[in-house]
Design a protein that fits this description.
single chain; about 120 residues; mainly alpha; 4 helices
């Protein structure tokens, strides 16, 4: 599959994972009274599980054994987790930006970072 097609598939899978992420984020902030940064990190973990399963099968059609791909994906997800933490902390806590627009920008930036790492290292 071409890089462009992989990126489009990765983005599509990401939409589903992101919807789950945002649902958790909104539920925890609006429903449970959590602060935005811890809530978004919980959502990130749920989205990451969905992304692993769908990207392994549909985006990268990887035959790398789960025992190897899973820990690599976890490290890449942790890198994305750190990007998410840093950007949301900057946008929301330091600049007092509204959490949802801040999360949208954060999501796009984290997507490009994790696509490159997953394509080359996790599933490649």
């Amino acid at each position: 599959m071409s890089t462009g097609r992989q990126l489009a598939t990765y983005a599509s899978v990401g939409v589903g994972a992101t919807l789950a992420h945002y649902a958790i984020l909104i539920a925890l902030v609006e429903g449970a009274g959590w602060r935005a940064v811890p809530a978004t990190l919980c959502g990130y973990v749920v989205g990451g599980l969905i992304a692993y399963l769908l990207n392994r099968r549909h985006t990268f059609a990887s035959d790398r054994p789960h025992a190897e791909a899973t820990w690599r994906f976890a490290l890449v997800a942790f890198a994305g987790f750190c990007v998410t933490y840093a950007l949301m902390s900057l946008f929301v806590d330091r600049w007092a930006a509204p959490y949802l627009p801040a999360q949208m920008v954060t999501t796009v930036l984290a997507m490009f970072v994790t696509f490159a790492l997953n394509r080359r290292w996790t599933f490649g």
